[in-house]
Amino acid sequence: MAKLQNQLLSLKETQALIESGQLLLIAGSQGLLDQLPAGQWLGGTTPYFMSKEGAQKDLNRLFVSNLSDLALNAEIKSYSAQELEQLLADRPENGFSYIALPAFSEVHKAYALEIGQYDTLYDQPILGWITGRELEADPSHLPAAYYGPKAEKMKNRAVLMHVELPESQYAEIEIYNPYEEGKGDDIQFLSTDFQATEALINGEKQNFAHYCKAKGIDGSLPLISDYSGALINTTIQRVEEDTVYFYAPVSVDQVYHLAQAVDYSPQAFRKEMPNSPAITACNCIVNYLNFKLDGEQLGNYEGPFTFGEVGYMLLNQTLVLLHIQNY
Fold first, then answer.
1. In angstroms, rounded to a whole number, what is the distance separating the alpha carbons of residues 51 and 295?
2. Pairing of β 309-311 and β 126-131
3. Residue 22: φ, ψ to 5°
4. What DSSP character marks residue 261?
5. In whole angstroms, what is the distance from residue 41 CA to residue 81 CA?
6. Nearest in space to 130 (alpha carbons), one of 105, 149, 161
7. Closest CA to 155 of 281, 34, 312
8. Phi/psi at 85 (nearest 5 deg)?
9. CA–CA separation, 104 vs 39, rounded Å?
10. Regions of the chain where pLDDT drops below 70
11. InterPro entries attached here (predicted)?
12. pTM higher than 0.90 for the full model?
């Protein structure tokens, strides 16, 4: 199996790699990404990383995954919210596609709401993440994805790297969810959206914000729904007076339960974590904060902490892993 290099690099080191023609996935602060030259790379904004040094925030370095020894061929393209079908059609027959979507952009919302409608979604692996920003940054600092071939910053387009693998190998996505479904109230929503005013609680219509406040639901635990055996999290972003906002859309077709309470510690996160080495990974920023992962080693997994993950669908509070297997 080809070996992928994951490294925290300085701006100059990253610029040199790009100029040498390497095929790269790059995560970092917007100030650093803005200084990169055109080349064969895909970028996204976040200053939080899993690395050999441990989980950390780093505003002075970029996290770089070098796919040059892995890819038989690769193509980097960008897509609007109206081009999701083409986005899926462009995936290689044997390989994977890596996606970066700017948080709360039109294309992020379209992907979240519409991608499950396409019968071809699971035909080839697609993984990646939602770009964000430093948590303390001014709200005017909008998350961005970067189209490396033109060194172009994109705040409302998805950027994908379509990677073709040799015939002797195939890509596999693994998803680790540190949460389990709770046994509490059945929660159903009246529309598929990133926000909700009313919900059916055990079949009775209630204001969902009032319900959350009465139950002490503050967003530290996600809502969980069973998608044909896969437990999918939806993170509560905030509870306002009459409306609850989410980091991924709730679906009218699903029944949700609040996750079981967990021990928020690094040991609890690692307890059930897969231990097989991954080529690259992305992990939710909420896990970084809740499980107190700063400074912690997370096994064989390196990559950005993100503001939503993609493992085919849009995910929250998960660790998404890419494996390359031999036939």
1. 9
2. antiparallel
3. -70, 155
4. P
5. 21
6. 105
7. 34
8. -65, -40
9. 27
10. 1-4
11. DUF6976
12. yes
